[in-house]
C-alpha cells in the first residue's frame, strides 16, 4: 500500500468514525449475544444511524467551549488559571457542561432522566456518548452521559477538558463491584483536567441498602472520597434513588453542582478554555507529525522506485 493510499484510508476512517462504530457494534453483540448476529447487526446499524442523525457528531478532541456567558461583574477582570485576566463575558444564561461518569448499571442514565423531571426504570446501557440539554432562566446545561462499560471507560478522559463539573455515580447495592468503581473514581479524580472542578458523588440505589452502607461505599473501604479528592476540588456526596420522582438526593446534588459552578463560573470557564486550547494544540501537533511521516514514507518510496 502506498503512503497516499494509507493517508486516504486513515482520513476516511476518521471522517466516518469507523473505529467508534466497530467498537459500538462489538460491545452490543457481546452484551446481547443474539442468536442471529447478522440480523442483529443490521438492526443496530439502523438504530445507530438514527441516533447519530438526531444528535449530530461530536469530536471529543476538539475545543467546543465558547466564551463564558453570564458571569457577574465582580468576576469580569479576575485572573484565570494562567494568571492572565479573564475576558469580560457577555450577559445571558451561563453555558455549563457536566460529565456523568460511573460503571455500567450504576444508574447514570436514570439519574439524568430524574434531573430532567422524568424518572424512569426502563433504560438500556449507554454505549459511547449521549448529550442531554437542560435549560433554566439562568443556565444552559449540557450533560454528557458516558458509557460505563469496561470497553468505553478509556474514552472518558477525552471529555474531561470540556466539563465545568463532574457527576460520579456508584451503585451502593453492588458490593461485588465496589473495588472496580473505586479504581475508576481514583483514575478520574487524579486526572489533570479534573482537578479543581466541582464533583458530586451520587451514592445511587440507596433504597436497596441500609444507611450505614452509604458511609461504607464513600469511606476508605470504598471510594475513599475524603482522601482521594484534593482540597482545591469542591466535593459533595449525595445518597439517592434515581428511579424515584423528585428524589431529594438527586435534587440536592444537582442544585449543589449548578450553584457551585455558577459561583466559580469565571475561573472554571477560563480553565475549560485553557484545557480545550491545549487539547486542540495537541491534536494539531499529532496531525502535523502524521503528515510528516506520510511525506517521508512517500519520499522513500519514490527514491526506491527511482533507484530500481
TrEMBL record:
Named from the GO MF annotations, one term is: metal ion binding
Point to the regions of Basic and acidic residues compositional bias.
Answer: 59-68
Composition-biased stretches, type Pro residues, lie in 82-92
Q: Which UniProt keywords apply?
A: Coiled coil, GTP-binding, Magnesium, Metal-binding, Nucleotide-binding
Q: Does the keyword Magnesium apply?
A: yes
* Pfam families membership: Arf
| Gene3D superfamilies per UniProt | P-loop containing nucleotide triphosphate hydrolases
* Residues annotated for GTP binding in this entry: 102-109, 148, 204-207
Q: Please list the coiled coil stretches.
A: 272-304
Q: Which domain of life is it from?
A: Eukaryota
Q: What is this protein called?
A: ADP-ribosylation factor-like protein
